[in-house]
Amino acid sequence: MTETPTRRDLLNQIGAIAGGSAVYLAMTSMGFAAESDYAGPVKLEGDPKGASVLILGAGVAGMAAALELRKAGYKVQVLDYNSRAGGRTWTIRGGDTYTELGGETQHCRFAEGLYINPGPWRIPYHHKGMLDYCKRLGVALEPFIQVNHNAYLHSKNAYDGKPQRYREVQADYHGTVAELLAKAVNADKLDDAVSKDDRERLLLSLRSFGALGVDGRYRTGEYASSRRGYAKPPGGGLSAEPESSVISSSSDVLKSGLWRALAVALDYDYQTTLFQPVGGMDMIARAFAREVGDLIRLNSKVTAIRQDETGVTASWCHTVTGEMGQSRADYCLCTIPLSILSQIEMNVGPKLADAIGAVPYAPGMKIGLQFKRRFWEQDEAIYGGISYTDLPISTIGYPATDYFKDGPGVLLGAYPFGPYAYEFTAMTPAERIAKAVEFGAVIHPQYRSEFEHGVAVGWHRVPWSMGCYGQWSSEARAKHYRNLCAMDGRILLAGEHASYIPAWQEGALLSSLDAIGRLHQRVMAR
Amino acid sequence: MTETPTRRDLLNQIGAIAGGSAVYLAMTSMGFAAESDYAGPVKLEGDPKGASVLILGAGVAGMAAALELRKAGYKVQVLDYNSRAGGRTWTIRGGDTYTELGGETQHCRFAEGLYINPGPWRIPYHHKGMLDYCKRLGVALEPFIQVNHNAYLHSKNAYDGKPQRYREVQADYHGTVAELLAKAVNADKLDDAVSKDDRERLLLSLRSFGALGVDGRYRTGEYASSRRGYAKPPGGGLSAEPESSVISSSSDVLKSGLWRALAVALDYDYQTTLFQPVGGMDMIARAFAREVGDLIRLNSKVTAIRQDETGVTASWCHTVTGEMGQSRADYCLCTIPLSILSQIEMNVGPKLADAIGAVPYAPGMKIGLQFKRRFWEQDEAIYGGISYTDLPISTIGYPATDYFKDGPGVLLGAYPFGPYAYEFTAMTPAERIAKAVEFGAVIHPQYRSEFEHGVAVGWHRVPWSMGCYGQWSSEARAKHYRNLCAMDGRILLAGEHASYIPAWQEGALLSSLDAIGRLHQRVMAR
Fold this sequence. Notes:
The structure is a homodimer.
Chain A: H1 5-18, H2 20-29, E1 52-56, H3 60-71, E2 75-79, E3 92-93, E4 97-99, E5 105-107, E6 115-116, H4 128-137, E7 141-144, E8 152-154, E9 164-165, H5 166-186, H6 196-210, H7 222-228, E10 230-232, E11 243-244, H8 250-256, H9 259-262, E12 274-277, H10 282-292, E13 296-297, E14 300-307, E15 312-318, E16 324-329, E17 331-334, H11 338-341, E18 345-346, H12 350-356, E19 365-371, H13 375-378, E20 385-389, E21 395-398, E22 409-414, H14 418-426, H15 429-443, H16 447-450, E23 451-458, H17 474-485, E24 491-493, H18 505-524
Parallel strand pairs in A: 1-2, 1-17, 2-13, 8-20, 14-18, 17-24
Antiparallel strand pairs in A: 3-6, 4-5, 7-12, 8-9, 10-11, 14-15, 15-16, 19-22, 19-23, 20-21
Helix pairs in contact in A: 1-2, 3-10, 3-18, 5-6, 12-17
C-alpha cells in the first residue's frame, strides 16, 4: 500500500498547521507501528474433513490464506474484482492499461524493464512474514534505498526556494542542537539534570554528534564539511586540497522546517535494511498466483454476501461479460477493503457492521514519470532514495535498481497524502502528470527537457479500493478493532485494515494468518 | 584500502584515551576528506611522439595511468610485485593462497561465491572517478549497506556486556539530547542564544528528532518504540496490539559510550548510497587488467630506480625464478607504497626523498570467517551493515550481497586499526582467526557452533605494502605533500598516499590522473 509516508506527511501537515503537540497526539492516535510478530510458517494441524472456505479478494491476505488453507486440506475458492491477482500489490509497466473511477483510461508507455509500484514499494527487515513468504515463493529481493544523503530537502519558503542536500540539512541541524546543548551545559544551566560524571561524557558526545570544535562551536571548516560536504572536494596530486562548504546559521536551519524530513529516517519502518522485489512489487503477487492461481476466479465483482446455518454465499457479477453467479462454501474469509465492503450487502451482526463503517480510507496518490535518461544519477549523483518537498508532489522517489544504466528511467514523481492527494486526484490523469512535472522541475530543472510520459494512480479513484488504506483513529480502534477481527457466524475479515500494521503488506499477511488460525480452531472444534 | 574506519577507530581510541579535544585535533590533522574532484574522463591532447612511460605498480593508480597513457599514444610498460594485478584492490576466494611476511601461507577454503576484500570494500556515491571507471569498464555495482539499525553496538563495559541494537542506542541518545535541550529552553536558560521565534521551532523540532512527548520528555511508550523497536511487535488480527520496549536512562546512554559509533553514519564517506562491485572488489582490478594486462610484467620486485638525462631505469627481480632484469622508459610513474619505496634505492632530490620518508603506514587487519549458515540473517534479521564493539575485533561486517541465501556465508570477523591491529598481526594467522571467533562469539553466540574456517590479512605483514595506507599528519602534509607530488626529474609519484583522499581507491585514481596530466604537459612542452 501507499504506506506510511502517510504518517510522516500527515504529521508534517499537522505540525505545520497546528504545532508540535498536535503532532504527537496525532501520532499516537494513528496507532501506527511497524514490526511484525510473525513467528514462522503457520501450522494448521488436523484434518478439516472437507471443510470449504470462500476467500474474497486475491491480494496478499487472500492468496496467503488460499495457499495455507489448501495445504491444510480445505477446499478453497477465491474471487477477485480485477483481471489480475495481487490487489494493491501492484506494478504498472509499459503496455498496461488502467481505468479509474470516472472512466479515464491510461495506457502506460514505459520502456521495457521500467515500472512504478502504485501501492507498496518496500519491505522493512522486520516484516518477517513477507520476507519469509518471498523466500518460500522464490521472489528475489534487492535493497530499497530509503535515505539518500545526497538527495534534496526542499521548501518553497526556505533558502529562497533552493533545494538543499539532505546531508547539509542534517549536519547543520545536528550542529545547531549540539552547540546549543553544549552551551547550556558549559554555562552550568543543566546542573540539576546532568551529573558531574555525565557532563563530560555528554560534551564529548555532542562534539562527535554535532561536529563541534573543542570550544563547543559548530562552524564552517573541515569538520563540518566532513558531514555536510565540501565546496571543493578533495582530490589527488597537486591542487587536491579541499575547500570547506559554508554552514547555515542555526536560525536559518530552524526556520527552514527542513528538519522535519530528518525524522523519517529515524522511524522503525524506514530503518535499514529495506528491500524490494527485483522487477516490481507484483513479483510477490505473481509468485502467490503461481501457487494458488488455479483457485482464483478473476473479474468477479462481489455484490452480496449472505451467511446461513450451513455456509456463506457470495453473489458476483463478471466485470466484462456481465454474467451473474454465486459461490458458496462453509466459511468466508473476506479481505475486501472496508471502503468497498461497506457498500456490499452482507448479513453480519451490528458489531461487525459498525466496525466496517468506522474506518475511513486514507487518500494518496502516486505518479510515475519516464525521462529520457537517469539525469538524477548522471548529473546529481543521486542513486535511489527520496527527495522531500512541501510542494504538492511531496516526494520524488529515485529508482533503487538498474543504477548507472543508460537510456530512460522512471521516477516516482509525486506521492502526496492528505489534501494534496485529493487535489491531485480531482484532476484528470493528464493534468496530474503535467502538474507533477511542473512542480518537480523546481527541484530538477532537467524535467523540462527530459520528460517523456507518465502514469498517475489516485487511490480514491481506484475502483476496487477507493482509497489507500484503512485509517484508524485511536477512538475507532479502541471501540471497533476487536469487533472487526472477531468471527461473525461463518464470516471472518482479514487485510491490512484488520491489523496494527496498517497500510503495509505485512499487516495484511499477519491478519490473514491470524484469521485462518482462528477459523481452523473453529473447524477442528466442530 | 582498508580505508577510513581508520579515522573512526583511531578517533574513538584517541577519544577514549585523551578526551574530546584530542579527537578534534586528530581529526583535522589527519587531513581526511571524502569527496572527489573528478571532472570526467581525462583528456591528454596532442601527440606524445613515441614518448614512453614506465609505471611501477599495477594497482588502481598504475592501471588507470596505463590505460589513459596508452590511449594518448604513449609506449607503456608496467611492473608489479604480485602474481596478479590490482594491488590493494584485492579479493580472496576459496582456492587462493596468500603468503605473508614471515612466511606463513594461508590456503583459503571459502565455498564457491564467497569472498573477503582485505582492502577496499565500498565506493561512496561521491567517488565519481571510481564510479565512472566502473561504468566505462563494465564493472557491475550493487549497494553496500553501511548502517544497519538492527545490527549491534557493543561495549564490554556497558549494559553488562550485552550487545544493544543500533536503533535502541540511536533512539535513546537522540531522546537524551533532545530532552535535555528542551529542558534548557523551557527553563529560559538559552534566551540569549535562541530568539523567541526560533524557540518554538526548536522545541517542535526536538520533539520530532528525539521522539519527545508534548511535555518535552523522552519516555517508554509508543513514540519511543516507533524509533527503537518494540518489546512485542504489532501484528494482525486479534492479539495484534504491540507492547513498548523500555528506554535506557540518559545516564546509562551516556556512560555506555556506544554513542561514539553513531557518528560514523554521519560522515560523508559513509553516507548513502555506497556501492560495491558484484562478486568482490577485485572485479575492478580484473576489468582494468582486461584493458592493460598485456602491458603488465607480474612477479617483478623492483630493487632500484635510476634516472639519468634521457630516461629512467628500474631494476627488478622475478619473485619466483629469481631472474634479474631492467626496464627503461623516458619517464617513470611510481605508484609503489611509500612504506616499500622508502626501502628502494632511487636517485631523486632531497625534497622528494624526505617526503617519501615522512609518511608512516597505518596498521590494519581484516579477517574473513566462513560459517555454516547466514545466522545473522536467519536468527537476527541483520542484512548487511556493521556491528561495532570495543573488543579487539572492532567491527563485524555482514555481507551486502546474496541476502536470504541458504548455505554458508562469510563475515568480516575483525577489522581493527591501531594497537589492536598490531596485537592481532603479531599472532599467527590461525591464532588471529581463533581470537576473532572467541571475541565475535560475545556478540553472536552462534559463532561457537557455526564457524568453519577463515583467512586473516594483517596489513603490516603484506610483503608489497607493509601497512594499510599512508597516514599523513597535518605537519607532514604541510611540509611534504607538494614535494611528494611534484615531478622530480623524470619521476612522478601517484597512489592514495599522493592524495587528500588517503586510504581510498578514489585518492589513488585521482592522484594518478593528476600526475599523468602533468607528465603529459611536460612531454608536450618538449
